[in-house]
Design goal:
Elements (H helix, E strand, L loop, with lengths): L1 H8 L4 H15 L6 H10 L26 H12 L13 E3 L9 E3 L19 H13 L12 H4 L24 H17 L6 H21 L8 E3 L4 E3 L9 H16 L2 H16 L12 H15 L5 H9 L10 E3 L3 E2 L2 E2 L4 E3 L4 E3 H11 L2 H4 L4 H14 L30 E3 L8 E3 L2 H4 L8 H4 L2 H7 E2 L8 E3 L13 E6 L5 E16 L4 E15 L3 E9 L4 E4 L2 E4 L2 E4 L6
Antiparallel strand pairs: 1-2, 3-4, 5-8, 6-7, 8-9, 9-10, 10-11, 12-13, 13-14, 14-17, 15-16, 15-17, 18-19, 19-20
Length: about 575
């Protein structure tokens, strides 16, 4: 009778239920969970409600027109064109060799920021963009291209030259000989280097560079931790070991970028000093009032991810939702053009989910791809955000096709004369709300600023592998499979984990391919097994406008608990299986 009472009438006796749950948790902690305990826990703990991001709720469940680009193919096409030294045509080839051997004694590949770049080209072989080169390796790797052995070249080892040691800065920067001047420009190259190292840990020199970069940022974090202004500066001067305010803007979301860099180093090397620095950056974000949005450029969403992950792994209680709201709704951001995520239609095209300036109506490919990669793994650590993040990624992935020339009418793009030479593999830098009578309008800053002869962005397009790595089609074109592990770097042992969002107003079935080994399908959203002892192809259902986070665990595995975590064969499957 007690189980029946809890199952059906728990709201009438909340105190009794709470006591029972605590007793059950105490009995089940760190031991095998009985079937009876599982039933009671599943039926009584009703606090796992999905949490919405307000700006995502302004987006349609199904963006219109719906046309999902094949993002894996887009990444393959980008890699094939950009790394072709013999490519012929206007503004081709894109790549060249830098034989200056700065920082390390090796020739390296060089890529510009834009096609037809006037500043960065083979005539100036040692002047090129680290953000572009690093993103091209990171993105290709995410879709399965081995960049350590491609056409006889080890492109991975070559990016070590962006570690500026000859000038004594000892950080990975945007060029092989660079000065600091902007937090996000100075942090992002090192973050991408860490991402790359996670896939190529055995290549000589990668670990040393990653650790050297982390050590330098650790020292910077310790300086700013003691500074009364914290991270509210423009950049960090590593020569003088002082933070600098340039008088025009500050980039306090550097705290998120530094915290991410430090936490990855902690996970990789195990040195507690890195965890301390990661907490320093996250503590800064935690103490900020909601009214002060620190978002400047690209870094803040990594703070939302880190908040969820550290809460799950370290037992912290960072406010994930506050950082997510900041990342989407930039109306209060430190940046004047309100940096965030679009939630509107331009002309007759949906641009929901694209990231950039809200006030000036200017979305960017790089920022959009990066944000999807940063947020997808949140659902591994906090499945309460599965529906809202799934909905966001569906909109962002569908509407990101508008960065490409072949997806737009001729009147809605700036570089029609060069369109064919991109082979539909290079995207425009960004998408503007309106240009003349055209709405929207794909373009960039390069031609108007005189930087390049085209607005086709190599630096932004290089990130396309993020979408390619995250998204795979299912039997239903509007329900995609999102790999929540792909951009979750330096994690502990993990089973394949996928996010599925059903945007329809009715329940739909999804077919998943499992391979030859028997597995159980566990859903962390609903805290239940969907099916057991299956292999090959199987089908499961998803309710209307809802999501599942599906973990493929070994069939008949041994379930145990540690605190609020549920494990199968000693591997964490659900970080929020039980609430304390």
């Amino acid at each position: 009778m007690e189980v029946t009472l809890i199952k059906y009438n728990w709201r009438k006796y909340p105190t009794v239920v709470a006591i029972l749950i605590l007793l059950i948790l105490a009995l089940t902690a760190c031991r095998e969970v009985s079937e009876e305990d599982k039933l009671v826990l599943l039926e009584t703990d009703k606090r796992y409600k999905q949490i919405d991001i307000a700006r995502v709720e302004l987006m349609p469940n199904v963006p219109e027109p719906f046309k999902m680009r094949d993002w894996k193919e887009a990444a393959y096409s980008f890699d094939k064109l950009v790394f072709d030294f013999q490519a012929e045509g206007a503004l081709l080839p894109i790549i060249w060799w830098d034989k200056s051997r700065k920082n390390f004694d090796q020739d390296i590949f060089a890529l510009p920021a834009y096609m037809g770049d006037n500043r960065q080209n083979a005539d100036n072989p040692d002047v090129h963009e680290g953000i572009t080169a690093l993103a091209s390796i990171m993105g290709a790797t995410l879709v399965g291209i081995d960049k350590s052995d491609q056409d006889g070249n080890n492109y991975v080892k070559m990016v070590q030259n962006f570690y500026n040691k000859d000038n004594g800065l000892n950080i990975v920067l945007d060029s092989t000989s660079h000065n600091t001047g902007s937090f996000w420009y100075d942090l992002l190259p090192g973050m991408m280097f860490s991402m790359i190292t996670s896939s190529y840990p055995d290549i000589e020199g990668m670990d040393e560079v990653m650790r050297g970069n982390a050590d330098s940022w650790y020292e910077a974090a310790m300086v700013m931790e003691k500074d009364e202004q914290g991270f509210e500066y423009s950049y960090f001067n590593f020569k003088d070991m002082l933070p600098v305010n340039n008088g025009s803007h500050i980039e306090p979301d550097s705290s998120a970028g530094i915290a991410w860099t430090q936490y990855m180093a902690y996970q990789h090397y195990g040195d507690e000093k890195y965890l301390s620095a990661a907490k320093s950056g996250m503590n800064y974000l935690e103490q900020l009032p909601t009214s002060f949005n620190p978002y400047y450029e690209i870094l803040l969403p990594y703070g939302a991810y880190l908040a969820a992950r550290m809460n799950a792994e370290q037992g912290t209680s960072y406010n994930v939702h506050k950082i997510l709201d900041w990342s989407f709704n930039g109306d209060t951001s430190v940046r004047g053009d309100a940096w965030g995520v679009l939630a509107e239609k331009w002309g007759d095209m949906d641009v929901y989910g694209l990231s950039g300036g809200l006030t000036n109506g200017y979305a960017f490919a790089m920022n959009t791809y990066s944000m999807a990669g940063a947020l997808a793994p949140i659902t591994r650590y906090d499945a309460r955000y599965a529906r809202t993040i799934g909905k966001f990624i569906l909109n962002a992935a569908n509407n990101s096709r508008l960065f490409y020339a072949d997806e737009l009418p001729d009147d809605n793009q700036s570089d029609l004369d060069l369109k064919s030479f991109t082979q539909n593999a290079i995207a425009y830098e960004g998408l503007r709300r309106k240009w003349g009578l055209a709405e929207p309008f794909a373009t960039g800053d390069a031609r108007t600023q005189g930087w390049a002869r085209s607005n086709f962005s190599i630096y932004g397009s290089a990130w396309v592998g993020v979408l390619g790595g995250l998204i795979s089609p299912t039997n239903d074109e509007k329900i995609v499979q999102i790999d929540t592990v792909k951009t979750d770097y330096y994690h502990d042992d993990v089973y394949p984990t996928y996010l599925y969002y059903n945007p329809y107003d009715s329940t739909r079935d999804v077919t998943i391919e499992l391979g030859d080994h028997l597995v159980d399908l566990y859903d962390t959203v609903n805290k239940t097994y969907m099916t057991r002892n299956v292999s090959g192809s199987t089908t499961f259902s998803i309710g209307a406008d809802s999501a599942r986070v599906v973990v493929l665990v070994p069939a008949e595995g041994n379930m145990t608990t540690e605190g609020n975590r549920m494990l199968i064969n000693d591997v964490v499957v659900d970080y929020m299986r039980f609430r304390r």
